[in-house]
Structures are given as structure tokens and as C-alpha cells.
User: Fold these one by one.
Assistant:
Number 1:
Amino acid sequence: MYIVEGDKVLLASPVAVGKASSPTPKGTHRITSKTKHRRRQSQPGAGYPMTYWMSFYSPAYGMHWGFVKPYPCTAGCVRMPLNTARKAFDIVSVGTPVNVSSTQPWDATVGAKLPRLDDSPLPNPPMSYMKSSKVFTDADQGKMWTF
């Protein structure tokens, strides 16, 4: 993922995108809303935290903090590492264009230098923690999983 202003890349990070059965909608969209502390409304996973939520395409699709794996694994959202989500939330505004594509002009230069992230080995936090307010407090402090 790249956040760009003019020709300058302001932020670049590996992200996780939608799996084949629920792809991230390709095309040019706009940020339609931002919510710092949001919870998933639909099943499965209602109540799951989607911190630093920035919706695009429709209210059900957005970018947010979550596990990042090196393969398509989401229900259509774009999941970002915690520090990336915090920075992106501060940089973008409602109305900011979002271009979802398989390739971007910066892939061969900036993208080639990004680390490959795989949060798969991390333990799943207990649901009691994930549904508590502490998950938001920890995220605001830049901490992950202090259960």
C-alpha cells in the first residue's frame, strides 16, 4: 500500500487484501468515513475490532489495523500493521482518493524494499480481550495484544 501526494510516497507498507471469494473491490474510490474505534457489525466476527477504520467503496469495505499475511486473506478489507494504520489514519481525510489495483507505479522501486510480513504465527487473542475496550487503548498506545 502506498499513500502518495503528487509524486512523493508519504507512506508505504505491506498489507493484506481480500481472498478470492471476497476480493477487495478494484478501481478508484474515495475515503467516505473514518472511525478510530470501530467494531465489525456483520457475521462472522461481529464485535471484532477494526481500529483506525477508513471506509471506501461502501460502508462495509475499508482499511484498518489487523493481521497481515503474505497472501489474500481478508473478507475484502485492506488490513494494515498497527503503526501503518495509525499513520494512514492521520494522513488521509474523507474524500482522499483510493486506487485499488494489482500493481502500482512504485512497486519496482519503493515496494521492492518493503519487508514481507506474516502475522500467521501470532496467537489469536482471547475474544474477551478483543471485545474489551482495552484493545482500543492498547492500539492508541501503539501496543499490540497485551492480554
Note: The first strand starts at residue 2 and ends at 5.
Number 2:
Amino acid sequence: MKKVTVIMPCLNVVQYFKECIDSVVNQTIFKDLEVLIVDAGSTDGTQELALFYAAKNSNIRVINSEKRSYGYQVNLGIKEASSKYVAILETDDFIREDMYEVLYDAAEEKHVDYVKANYDRFFVLSNKQKLFKKMRFPSKQLDYNCVMDVTKRTDISIYDYYVWKGIYHREFLINNKIYFNESPGAAYQDIGFGQILHSHAKRALYLPDSLYRYRVGREQSSVNSGKGIIYNRNEFERLLHLQDEYELFMPGVYEAMLSAFIGEFGQLDAPTAASDHNILDCAHWIVNHVEEAIRSGIISEEMICQDLGEDKLLQFRRIQKDIPGEMEKHVRMKREQRRQWTELSYIEEPIYIFGAGNYGMNALRLLDSCGVQITGFLDNGADENKQIAGYDVILPTNRIVGENARVIIANKFHAEEIRKQLVDMGVDEANILEYKN
């Protein structure tokens, strides 16, 4: 028996597939892996490439899916798997060379239902460089390297929704009927899977290592259009129908519903969203169900503030008062911000981002998406020869920056101090901008 079955659902991903499958073939325990590529009728060469790898490796098999459904494809893989553990690898991503060895060894040592690790997000810039950002579990209450019962953990319900970060004991999934929703396409089916998983897992393990590399941006247009709100409603409506059958932890489900809705609302960038009856209907459905959960005592405003933050509760209350109005206002604000940043693409003077941390990387991604080419990063703690995605990180000096340069401050806590530093260096204050996350 192989140690881990890697399930790779795919559909027309030839542009990314080689990098993904190579990261599997190069795994330190590749010979102990079973690889199931579940293709849903690709027509761009993905299937031919998958068959090429299968012909060269006896532990790789290509399975044809009769449905174009991410959930159906993964479920098919779980049923076909012959290993003790199963993993899900999305075929536009890639993984660290020892990911499955690290996870398998931890699962065997601790005898867990599942084990997950951290991951890096990455975004491919216009200069073809990858911009990586390390992601850690946001809950401060998470104990890494400790086996936990997560069946009543709201923080796990809210924040642990990515299925590809770990491996799962196959028998545990099958015995508890933990499967994906088989709705069409790739439509957030991991939401339902995660909530059912957490309601049953009494032995869960989280590792601090970053093992997975998650591509950001490929599906962004559908998220910005408001489809994410529709997908969320569909997944959570299904969970409400299944709550008794699976004995779901409903406080976690409702707080996850609220968190996901606020997240999707923040992604909206389409002017038509506020007049789209389907999107509005789904938004009203979510808001009404969250409010009913608060009124009935399943969750409370105090719980929301504790688990999600007071700002999320206040945002929910604002949206609740006028959903289409808040949508229009949000989209208008986002578009105006993007217009202002895009104007920088027309200037010839040097453009620097001041701050080489997470804020700086977020600013780089935004500017790059607006067609703005930066000169480099400024940072008071710059190390020699440091780069971010091909851009030099340098110490700010009068000689390097100059008074006509545009400088974008990307620092959450010290923006005013940096502004004063730049003015003292001779930078025209009108040329100093501030990025806010």
C-alpha cells in the first residue's frame, strides 16, 4: 500500500500543469505516492500532458471524470484511492519537495484524522517574477504540533477552509461520510467539506512549516463579479440542510458564513453587482440567516467581536441596513482607488515603495495589476543584495531617491514618521502617497 494518494482535479490548466506535476514527481517520497489525475474533459493539452507523465510513472493514473465538478472529481479520487491517507493538490499550484513526507510522518507519529501545514501565496507579476507571501493561521489560540479536538472550535471553523494544505485519513473520511458537494464547476465546495470535517475531527494536527504554494489571481474575475457570494450561499444552504445528519457545530458554521460573506463583499469590483438580482438575493439570504442566528442565541455579537473583530461586526451592520447601497459605494470606492493608482503608470519619474514587509508586497501586487512599474523598494532595515520579486530593496538616501521621485508608503504603523523622513530628505510632499491595505 502506498503512503499517500494525491488527488489532482484538473480542467484546462496546461499553462500551469507541468510545474504542478513536476513538484509531485520531485517529492522525497514520490515512490510511496499514488497520484490520481482526475480530468474533467480538458481540451487544451492538459490531458495529453497528464497521460505523458502517467506513461513514464507506474504510480500515476489518469481518470476521466464524467462531470465538470471540482467536488465530484475529488470525491471520485477519494473513492479510487488505495492509500491510508489522501491529499488534494490543485493543478495550478505547486508544493515543497518534502511536503508529503513531512505530513505523513507527523500523521503516523500522532495518529490523527488529518494534519495540515501553513502555505505561501504567490502572484506572478508582469515581469514574470513570482511574489511570495507567507501565510500563517490567523488564530492566536492555535497550538502548533499539538493534537487537538476541533469539533467545537469556532476559530477552526472560521479560518481553516483550505483543503489542499494537508492530508486526511481516508477511512476517517469514508466512515463519517465526509465528501464534497458535487455542484457544477469550481464553486467553493471546500466550504462544506471543511465544516463537516471539523465537526468530526477529534484528532487534528497543525504544523508551522510552509509546504504549499498557492497561486492567486487566476480566478479573480469571477470573485470580483460577485459570484463568490452566490457560491457561499449555495454551500452554506446545503450545510443547513445537513446540520442534523452530520451534527454540525452550528456556531462555527454561522460565524464562518459571516466571515466568508464579509470577505467576498470586500472583493466586489463589478458595477453590475448591486443590480444583479441573483447576487442580491444571495446576500439577503446570508444576512438574514446570520441575523436569525444572533437573535436565537446560536451566536452573539460578543462572540463575533471576539472571533472576528469588532470591525467585522460593524461592517456587517452597515451592509445589513442597505445591501445594494453599500455594494454601490464599495465598488465606486475601489474603482476610484484603482483609477488613482493607474495614473502612476503614465509618469516617467522613479517610483518607489517604502516598506518591504507584507504591506509593501501587497502594494506591489496592486500597482502591478494597475500597470505601474516600480523602480524598487526603500526600507530602513534593508539588507545588502536583498530583492523582492526581482526588485532591489535599498536604504533610502537623498542621492538615490531625489525630489521628483514618487514614493508610496506601505507601512501600517509608522506612515507619518516615514513621511517626515522623506520630506527631510527633500522629497516633494506632493509626491508622497500612502498605500492602505
Note: The chain has three domains: 4-218, 227-337, 347-434.
